[in-house]
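Key result, reporting period 2: structure in, sequence out.
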C-alpha cells in the first residue's frame, strides 16, 4: 500500500523538502502542496523508471551527499580565489577526458551532475560507448589529479551506492 502511494520514496522526500524550502513558509497550504507534489510527481514518472536500481547502501548515500556538499564549499572558495587573485595568464583551464567504470545510467547521471554542481568544473559530454566523460575545468594544472579525485571521491562511492 505504502509503496503504491510512494513508488520512489526518496524522490518524494526530496520533492517535499524542496517545495518547503522554495516557498520558505511552514504553513498548512505549503505543506499540503508539498505533499501533493511528493505524491503526484513520482506516481506520474514511475512508468518511465521500470528498471531503476535500488539504492543499496543508504548510509553510503548520506556520506556521499556530505562529501559533495563539503567539496562544493571548498570549490566555491577555490574558484573565488582563482577569479579574484590569479592572473589570467596563470589560469590553466582545460578539457579532461575522465574514464568511468560505472554501469547504471542513474549512477553515471549522478556523477555527471556532481561534477557540474561543483564550481570550477562542468560535465560537457559523454562518449558514445558511455565509458568516458568529457569535463571542462576552470583551472587544471594537473589533469591526472583531477581524474584521480573524481574517481576516488565520487565514482568509488557511487559504485557502493548503486552497483
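The corresponding designed sequence is given below.
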Amino acid at each position: 500500500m505504502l509503496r503504491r502511494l510512494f513508488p520512489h520514496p526518496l524522490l518524494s522526500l526530496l520533492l517535499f523538502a524542496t517545495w518547503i524550502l522554495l516557498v520558505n513558509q511552514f504553513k498548512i497550504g505549503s505543506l499540503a502542496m508539498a505533499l501533493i507534489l511528493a505524491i503526484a510527481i513520482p506516481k506520474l514518472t514511475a512508468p518511465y523508471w521500470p528498471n531503476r536500481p535500488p539504492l543499496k547502501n543508504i548510509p553510503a548515500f548520506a556520506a556521499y551527499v556530505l562529501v559533495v556538499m563539503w567539496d562544493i564549499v571548498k570549490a566555491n572558495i577555490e574558484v573565488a580565489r582563482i577569479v579574484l587573485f590569479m592572473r589570467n595568464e596563470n589560469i590553466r583551464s582545460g578539457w579532461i577526458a575522465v574514464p568511468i567504470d560505472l554501469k547504471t545510467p542513474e549512477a553515471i547521471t549522478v556523477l555527471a551532475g556532481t561534477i557540474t554542481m561543483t564550481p570550477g568544473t562542468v560535465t560537457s559530454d559523454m562518449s558514445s560507448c558511455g565509458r568516458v566523460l568529457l569535463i571542462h575545468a576552470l583551472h587544471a594544472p594537473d589533469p591526472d589529479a583531477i581524474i584521480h579525485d573524481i574517481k576516488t571521491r565520487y565514482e568509488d562511492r557511487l559504485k557502493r551506492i548503486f552497483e
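Residues 99 and 106 are 17 Å apart (CA to CA). The mean pLDDT is 90. This case is discussed further under Risks and Mitigation.
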